[in-house]
Automatic annotation (TrEMBL):
Alphabetized UniProt keyword annotations: Carbohydrate metabolism, Isomerase
Residue span, L-fucose isomerase C-terminal domain: 341-468
GO BP terms, alphabetized: fucose metabolic process
GO molecular function: L-fucose isomerase activity
Record keyword Transmembrane present: no
Pfam families listed in its UniProt record: Fucose_iso_C
Entry protein name: Fucose isomerase
One annotated Gene Ontology cellular component of this protein: cytoplasm
């Protein structure tokens, strides 16, 4: 998981009747941890306040000014409590800085052999007081997995890395730009969404008519340099199998135009009409282009599933790896906790070690198989699994989501397209929740264990309604 250029502000809380040496040691320790994890710290120098800690209102003002100066870099704030700390100093700093970023509250443990006046911390109690003040101020915050922990402990380092991912998700979703290419297929009411609700949450959707994309693609020829370059790109991405050269040219022309569209409008993700206008009016599938974009961390969803690609983007931010849009498609024999995940072929290459460009037999039965080249064939092997879905709920005027974890398995599966088998605890309960709450048949998978990160980012910080599915014990 990359933490490159992730700036985290640090507030070291202090209270004057506790030993100053605790603050000094905490500063050294946290700087070592940040360096080890590749996170950039932004904190007061030791010359600005006593040892760089924050206790008084004037010190809070200094720290807030520093944070505002680096507002473009700071994606989250870590509150470090080497002793009880001053709860007002911490809360005032965050209120004055007004960064509106995630906050992680840490507290040091006391050691039974050091409960004397010279070494006592009382951070256990101080953390409760700090959180109480943040709650009063209306400032959202996250907690470490253990109430108290040393920064050098593996548990805290994991907490910090998870927090960095939470910051990435929150920052990314507050400013995401999605391109919607074409109209929603007429038979797919399931992928309806509210563009206005998304915009209220900072999510912009830029639409373009499919005819504009196809028209621009048709003006290109196989001799254009850009087309030749994209044919080479596609050939280096996946074996062409039995795909005709003419279909490869069609795919490359479409790929050129889609990439231009993404660049022109600075898009973070796309959702593309692919059923069935593209095949009938242009003569190929767009799956390979979508797969390449998703592999390159520009997620792309089919059937103009805008909130589907938003879900892909959120999971990508949480994990640092590509996501895939899939159908909750089939039961797996009589196993109540296994399900077949399927799509006709646009998953990122990361999911498909046996990737090959092919066609789409189901779609081909109505539009002609010869018009469906560009779909991918491949089986996803055993992997960790995070699944989930973001959706707009128009009657309630909200954004809602569900997330959970399971495993992708190597269970036998003889079929075509992009396919996987997932094992999910209490799958029947999950399906009941999905159906009862009007979620789409599309879900997103990611080869990670990041459901808790998504729950915290989407629910606590973005204020969306989130259900975290867990196996019933």
């Amino acid at each position: 998981m990359s933490t490159e250029k992730m700036g985290i502000g640090v507030i070291i809380g202090n209270r004057d009747f506790f030993p100053d040496s605790l603050v000094e040691k905490a500063r050294i320790e946290i700087l070592d941890v940040f360096e080890d994890l590749g996170v950039t710290p932004i904190l007061l120098p030791t010359t600005s306040t006593k040892l760089g800690g924050v206790e008084t209102f004037k010190e809070a003002q200094k720290c807030a000014e520093l944070f505002k100066k680096h507002a473009d870099e700071i994606t989250g704030v870590l509150v470090l409590l080497p002793n009880f700390g001053d709860e007002k100093g911490v809360a005032d700093t965050l209120k004055l800085a007004d960064l509106k970023v995630p906050v992680l509250v840490q507290a040091y443990p006391d050691e039974l052999s050091k409960m004397n006046v010279a070494n006592r911390r009382d951070s256990w109690c101080g953390k409760i007081s700090v959180c109480n003040n943040l709650y009063q101020y209306g400032i959202k915050y996250s907690l470490t997995s253990s109430h108290v922990s040393f920064p050098s402990e593996p548990g805290f380092k994991k907490d910090l890395l998870n927090f960095v991912s939470i910051c990435k998700v929150v920052k990314g979703l507050r400013n995401v730009r999605i391109g919607a290419v074409g109209a929603r297929p007429g038979a797919f009411n399931t992928v309806r969404y509210s563009e206005k609700i998304l915009q209220r949450n900072g999510i912009s959707v830029h639409t373009v008519d499919l005819s504009e994309i196809l028209g621009r693609a048709e003006k290109l020829t196989k001799d254009d340099i850009s087309v030749k370059q994209h044919i080479d790109l596609i050939n280096s991405y996946a074996p062409k199998g039995k795909t005709p050269d003419a279909a490869m040219v069609q795919m490359a022309k479409l790929d050129v135009v889609l990439n231009e569209f993404v660049e022109e409008y600075a898009l973070d993700a796309t959702a593309i009409q692919c059923w069935t206008s593209l095949q009938q009016n242009y003569g190929c599938n767009v799956c390979t282009s979508m797969s390449i974009m998703s592999e390159n961390m520009l997620p792309s969803a089919c059937e103009v599933d805008v909130t589907g690609t938003l879900s892909m983007y959120a999971m990508q931010l949480a994990s640092g790896s590509p996501s895939a849009l899939v159908d909750w498609n089939n039961n797996y024999a009589n196993d109540v906790n296994k399900v077949v995940l399927f799509h006709c072929g646009n998953w990122a290459k990361s999911f498909l070690p046996d990737i090959e460009i092919s066609n789409a037999p189901i779609l081909g039965s109505t539009v002609g198989v010869e018009n469906t080249y560009g779909a991918l064939d491949g089986r996803t092997p055993a992997n960790p699994l995070t699944y989930g879905r973001i959706s707009t709920d128009d009657p309630k005027g909200i954004i809602k989501a569900y997330v959970g974890e399971g495993e992708l398995t190597d269970d036998p599966l003889k079929t075509f397209g992009n396919r996987a088998v997932a094992n999910i605890g209490d799958l029947q309960g999950l399906m009941n929740y999905v159906c009862r709450n009007g979620f789409e048949h599309h879900v997103v998978m990611n080869a990670s264990k990041t459901a808790s990160i998504l729950e915290e980012a989407l629910g606590n910080y973005l204020g969306w309604q989130v259900y975290h599915h867990k196996e019933v014990s």
